[in-house]
Amino acid sequence: MADFEIRDLRVSVEGREILKGVTLDVDKGQVHAVMGPNGSGKSTLSQALMGHPAYEVTGGEVRFKGVNVLELAPDERARLGMYLAFQYPTVVPGITMANFLRTALNAKRGYDGKDKTKAITPKEFRALLKDSMHTLRMDDSFLSRYINDGFSGGEKKRAEILQMAVLKPEIAILDETDSGLDIDSIKYVSEAVNALRGPELGVLIITHYTRILEHVKPDFVHVLVDGRIVRSGGPEVADQLETTGYAEWGVKEEPVAAGQLSGQEEA
Amino acid sequence: MSFSLKAVEELASLHGEPEWVRVRRRASWAAYERLPMPSRSEEEWRRTNLKGLDLAVFEAWEPANGGAPADSIEDAAAVLRQRGSEPGQVDVGPELSAKGVLFMPLSQAAREHSELVEQHLFKGVDPERDKLSALHGALFSGGTFLYVPNGVSVEKPFVSQFWSSGGGAAVLPHTLIVAGDGSQFNYIDEFLSPTLETPSLTSGSVEVFAGRGANVGYVSLQRWGNHAWQFADQKVIAEQESTVRVVNVGLGGRFAKTRVEAVLHGPGASAELKGLFFGSGGQFFDYHTLQSHVVGDTTSDLLFKGALRDTARSVYAGLIRIEKGARRSDAYQANRNLLLSKSANAYSIPMLEIMNNDVRCTHGATIAPVDPEHVFYLESRGIPRASAERMIVHGFFGQVLDRIPVGQARELVESELEARLG
User: Can you tell me the mean pLDDT for B160-167?
Assistant: First the structure.
């Protein structure tokens, strides 16, 4: 039995079935990539796994630590050890990154505003952030800014990985983390993800392009087309895709190797 | 004793006021009797429902009553405490007195500093504007007078705390602030009562006269109980090069209507008008604001933010008026509303009257529920939904909270919000 099991997952959005039975096993210590063309259901997979209310699960199971997480609220999934790095992190005005991170950490530690011994101390908080912020080339001023407010595309993605580093999930889903990133940001983000890799973390990288996989080497690659996994294998699957694209599954002219680096943020 | 000319006379005697105050009270009473109840056919009252307000049920004033809570703002220059409708108590230390600062109940000031008070009282706020303003003019009870002489700076805030625990009566304090040229200080009016069964009628009107180059912060913390009908008129007159910052915090009352008006009267004057209100249950808030640029080279900056839960409702109407000669006026007005339930609702009516082309003027209004993407984002990091919503509302108010000039007042508002969001 794998640590994180997706069994025949079916998800609809506004009454339309997008995921038509996805099955996938991720063990801690492994990095899996799910690749697919536009519209294949990649983002639906990541949002549904985290429990976004707009994504209606119509069938299947997702088991993690012995529970079907589909029955849990998003915050419960997170506290269980799941993490989603968003493709489009939202701007939340009025809440500083520091306050946000501290609250999230405290929630994970079971601090509900009462038992102060459970709350993270300022010193611990600082220590926890220091190394990751350095790896991601983020300075202190970032902490006093509002959540993602005025962040560049690269800063937003780096902030997602910073949160991951701080919250230390056991299963992390990285949704198109490389899209819209300049070459430096890709480097910093990959470095940070690689630093987090280890026996206590399973990673699911969701991506259209092979680019990020050059920096974060996957152990397994799955191809998602039209809501189904159509091929699974080792890193060689990504290499194949890079030459043949998704044409094999009737998808035309979608480059898999990202040629140009900037300006490809998907709308 | 219910509202009557006899009550007006008796109140003036009780407060030991000089004859000229009594004469003015009588004039306001005559206006009260003459004026009709505001009707929904008038633009200002179109969405403001006075149904359920019966002026005949109220006692004309409330005797002093105990049970006041501990001081919430401790680190103050001086605190005036008023209980019910009776003149408050205040101890102004020798240091402030030596500087010529006057801080005392309004009735005492009318006796002891008659000329100064007479020059200003009701010269900003119009006591015949409508029936309820006239009632306040006739029966204002207690209140505060603050005078800070030219060039005097006071670092700690002046605080007036108005406490009512009676119910069934009118509690109508009036604040008069006269800031000398180049003076600097902050002032906080705190209105509070427990929520009672019997409705009460309250005001909390204020006049601020800011002399040349004065720098004045005024905060109104409205925490009347949810039994109160509140009608307040606030007026700021800003002279040349003065800066006035007004923050309104509206948390209490079953019905709370507040007019917030700033007149930029001298070149270089600037007014910042900020407000936040949080309504739950069946509370209703009405804010009518005016940024009046009488002369040029003046600035006004307004932001009112409201969050409403349950079946709470609000009306915001704001007017920027720029007179013909008021060149290079710079005016900003924004009203943002956050609806926390499907049954809550807010109206927002921004208005402009601009008689000069050489101005900068921006306004905007939004009414929206909490963005589910915001909630999901916070939840996805392990923050429970209720906490996430609390953080979002708190964050929404951040821009206004940041502008509360006194740290302790800000903390007080934050903990009040926390408790109300709880």
Answer: 90
Q: Which of chain B's residues have a Cβ under 8 Å away from the Cβ of A83?
A: 380
* pLDDT for res B60: 96
Contact A84 B385 (CB under 8 A): no
pLDDT at A262 over 50: no
Give B231's contacts (C-beta < 8 A, 6+ positions apart).
Answer: B132, B133, B136, B201, B202, B203, B257
Q: Where are the domains of chain B?
A: 5-266, 373-422
| pLDDT score, position A263 | 43
The pLDDT score that the predictor gives to residue B68 is 63
What domains are defined for chain A? Answer: 4-249 (3.40.50.300)
The rounded mean pLDDT for chain B is: 95
Coil, strand or helix at A56: strand
pLDDT at A185: 86
A94:B397 CB<8 A:
yes
Residues of B in contact with A50 (CB under 8 A): 376, 380
Residues in chain B closer than 8 A to A172 (CB atoms): none
- Indicate which of A95, A102, A145 best probes the interface with B, i.e. most B CBs within 10 Å of its own CB: A95
Facing B383 at nearest CB: one of A52, A90, A103 = A103
Helix A122-135 to helix A153-167 angle (10° resolution) is 130
CA B374/CA A141 separation, integer angstroms: 22
Decide if B392 and A95 are in contact by the 8 Å CB cutoff: yes
Give me the count of residues in chain B: 422
Strands (E), chain A: 4-13, 16-26, 31-35, 55-64, 67-68, 82-85, 92-96, 146-147, 171-175, 202-207, 220-225, 228-233
Q: What is the mean pLDDT of chain A?
A: 91
In whole angstroms, give the CA distance from residue A42 to residue A95: 29
DSSP B326-374: -TT-EEEEEEEEEE-STT-EEEEEEEEEE--SS-EEEEEEEEEEPPHHH
Contact A192, A135 (CB under 8 A): yes
Question: Exposure pattern of B334-357 as b/e (b: 16+ CB <10 Å)?
Answer: bbbbbbbeeebbbbbebeeebebe
Listed residue (B224, B226, B199, B348) closest to B281, CA to CA: B226
R_g of chain B, CA atoms, integer Å: 21
SS (H, E, C) B197-264: CCCEEECCEEEEEECCCCEEEEEEEEECCCCEEEEEEEEEEECCCCEEEEEEEECCCCEEEEEEEEEE
Q: What type of residue is B315? A: V
**Model pLDDT for residues A41-89, shown as the tens digit of each residue:** 999 999 999 999 999 999 999 999 999 999 999 999 999 999 999 999 9
| Spatial CA neighbour of A19 closest among A262, A260, A226 | A226
Span of A176-185, B4-13, B173-182 with lowest mean pLDDT: A176-185
- Closest B-chain CA to A164: B381
Name the pLDDT band for B99 (thresholds 50, 70, 90).
very high
Half-sphere exposure of B266 (CA within 13 A, CB side): 17
Residue A267 has pLDDT above 60, yes or no: no
Q: How far is A187 from chain B (nearest CA, A)?
A: 24
A265 has a pLDDT exceeding 50: no
Does residue B69 register a pLDDT over 80? no
Per 3-state DSSP, what percentage of chain B is helix, strand, and coil (rounded to 5)? 25, 40, 40
For the stretch A186-221, pLDDT in tens is 988 999 999 999 999 999 999 988 889 999 999 999
